[in-house]
Design brief:
By secondary structure, the chain is mainly α. The protein has one domain. The chain has helices at about 1-15, 20-30, 35-75, 80-95. It comes from Syntrophothermus lipocalidus (strain DSM 12680 / TGB-C1).
């Protein structure tokens, strides 16, 4: 159970540091014999997967909030601006041709 507790705290800490630092910490635990290399690799892989899943969730949440704010503030999107530019270009060509 002590190993599980150490792993949990290590996992929480590793979410806040770079991959290289995480691997260094895990390697130190392996060197001390507190975890096996297989356990360490599995643990790092799981943390990286969870980190990526969390990153995707946060990215989706941010997109939703930005879209919501865009609507509330009445801001236009890039595609809407591009559409208006195309229409303006078309109108300018028509005026020039007359």
């Amino acid at each position: 159970m002590n190993w599980l507790r150490k792993a949990m705290f290590l996992g929480l800490g590793m979410l806040c540091v770079a991959k290289e630092t995480s691997e260094r910490i895990i390697n130190e635990l392996v060197a001390k014999g507190e975890v096996s290399e297989e356990e360490a690799k599995k643990f790092v892989d799981e943390l990286l997967q969870k980190g990526e899943e969390y990153r995707q969730e946060v990215k989706g949440f941010i997109r939703q909030e930005v879209e919501k704010l865009r609507g509330e503030l009445g801001l236009v999107t890039k595609s809407e601006i591009d559409e208006i530019r195309e229409r303006l270009d078309t109108l300018e060509r028509k005026v020039e041709s007359q």
